[in-house]
Amino acid sequence: MINQGVNRTTQFLAWLGSFLLILLFGYLSWQGYQQTPSPQLLLRWLVAFLASELILLLLVREIDCLFQRLLQQAQQAEQLQQQLASRQNNNYQQALSTLNNIATSFDPDWRKQLRQALQVAADYLQLPIAIVSKIEQQDYQVLVHSAPEGLLQDGSHFALGNTYCSLTLARGTVLAIDQMSQSQHAQHPCFKTFALESYIGSAIQVDGKPFGTVSFSSATARATPFSQLECDFVSLLARWIGSSIERRQYLEAQVDAAQRLKKIASQLPGMVFQFQLKPDGSSSFPYCSEGIRDIYQLTPEQVKDDASAVFALIHPDDLAAVQDSVAASAASLSLWKTDYRVRRQDGEYIWVTGRSMPEQQPDGSVLWHGFISDLTERKRVERLKDEFVSTVSHELRTPLTAISGAIGLLHGQVFGALPEQARQMTELAQANVKKLQLLINDLLDMDKLIAGKMQFDMQPQPLLPIIQAALRDNQSYAQQYQVSYQLDADPTDIWVRVDNMRLQQVLTNLLSNAAKFSPPQAVVKVVLQQQDDTALIRVIDSGCGISDDFKPYIFSKFSQADSSDSKTKGGTGLGLAISQQLMHKMQGNIGFHSEQGKGSEFYLLLPVERITEHSEEIL
């Protein structure tokens, strides 16, 4: 296309020149002929014209040759430039590909990985000295380097001001200088000390904060200035190095945390674990401390991918309850807490207790974090304690009954009138004997409940008369505290299947507690309602309420909100624990709502019996 344009131009010049020569010589020959008419004169002008035309043609030819040579040189230069750009692009792509391979491979020696990346980049940039530095204030540390042997060492320190990297940090972007001696930084201390002529570098950021630099340099000047492609390459490399250092620091922090956790877990009694339940029903222990050897006599590796070995060791009578508790915890993401037995290699069983908190995972599985500890010794001590309390209670009941009878005779003045001081002493003794009898009866009741020896006479019967009887029997007790009871009953007859005496025992405990903790002149409300197939009994007082710290222990044995030696309310601390056991035995439940300073409400829940089922039996 360009050649055709040049040819057309030269042809146009040739024709234009010829035409002008014809006009010029034609005019001159005509003027001469007018002055001296002679054929020889015309012949001379014709010869002059032909000579001029020849010279014109030679001149146009030379111009055309010159244009052709210039065009050829331009094309050669363009080809060379394209070849250079193609070679640079190929080198760039090859360097990126090699860096990508280094980045995607995992090498535990992160310094080795960075050094390989520096070598690839140094070859691409044709600069022999490559450094990744860590900069803290004015201290420049060579973190990793690639350079001729003996020139540098990892860990070397320099003053930041004596390095070109001080200029890089001040610039904030890639700094590239192809000939330092001819630049504005020719007086920089680094050039005076190390005589590095060419330099390119970029800042490295880790977690969004300045970390150091990556730089490349040489003692010789560059033949060509740094291209934009090379600057972009160094900038990209700096970002990759920053990400690599971030990732390495994160992994090191994880390893450090895991090591600390392992050390802490090794000092804890029992087993610290993570238990995972997957959507397909399979389960595993992704993490277990070495304590699993003490609990299950297994290793962490044996249960890491499959938890079936653990479930195989659970007592057959406890397995279903454990599986149900796990399923319930997963469904509601609530605390998992249970006690169960585990078989040892010698065939003996130990008691263990587990507690963990579930967490929903993105893949739909549930992951628990918790611990399991050996409960055998505590169970043994509790059993011995219960046996001791039971034995002592039985042994004390007979002599205490005799003492109570004797004191009652003395206090009743059967053997004659007593002095006032003696009468006060017998009255005090009789009151304390009654407290002891109450404690022993409660202890024996709790012992029977735990052992499953308490007898229940479960009969279908109306609920309202039982409540009325309990209110009547406890009215005198409430009057001691200047408290009264108020019944609000659902007009519908509500029938339940219960043991009359045991339900009255539960109601007595709730009514006496409400009276004790209510202020004088207060009214304790007793509400009877039916909610669907459930009977609800509510005992509401306006007393001091229950503190948040004591609420978890409200149904524990021997638990009392006032545990000082000078308790003013009395009680054994067993009433609510016994009441809870009695309600469970009668297929019911007991609970409470309370706010400190605003009173409490205890409630009983019992399944309702249909009257028609027992009409013939009643008649």
TrEMBL record:
SMART domains: GAF, HATPase_c, HisKA, PAC
InterPro entries, per the entry: GAF (IPR003018), GAF-like_dom_sf (IPR029016), HATPase_C_sf (IPR036890), HATPase_dom (IPR003594), His_kinase_dom (IPR005467), HisK_dim/P_dom (IPR003661), HisK_dim/P_sf (IPR036097), PAC (IPR001610)
UniProt KW keywords: ATP-binding, Cell membrane, Coiled coil, Kinase, Membrane, Nucleotide-binding, Phosphoprotein, Transferase, Transmembrane, Transmembrane helix, Two-component regulatory system
Domain PAC: residue ranges: 336-387
CDD domains: HisKA (cd00082), PAS (cd00130)
Chief location category: membrane
Keyword Transferase: yes
Superkingdom of this protein's organism: Bacteria
Residue stretches making up the Histidine kinase domain: 391-610
Bilayer-crossing regions: 12-30
GO MF: ATP binding; phosphorelay sensor kinase activity
Catalyzed chemical reaction(s): ATP + protein L-histidine = ADP + protein N-phospho-L-histidine
Coiled-coil stretches noted in the UniProt entry, renumbered to this chain: 63-90
Enzyme superclass (EC): transferase
Subcellular location: Cell membrane
Pfam family name, one: PAS_3
Keyword Nucleus recorded: no
GO cellular component: plasma membrane
EC id: 2.7.13.3
PANTHER family tied to this protein: SENSOR HISTIDINE KINASE RCSC (PTHR43711:SF26), TWO-COMPONENT HISTIDINE KINASE (PTHR43711)
The protein's name in its UniProt record: histidine kinase
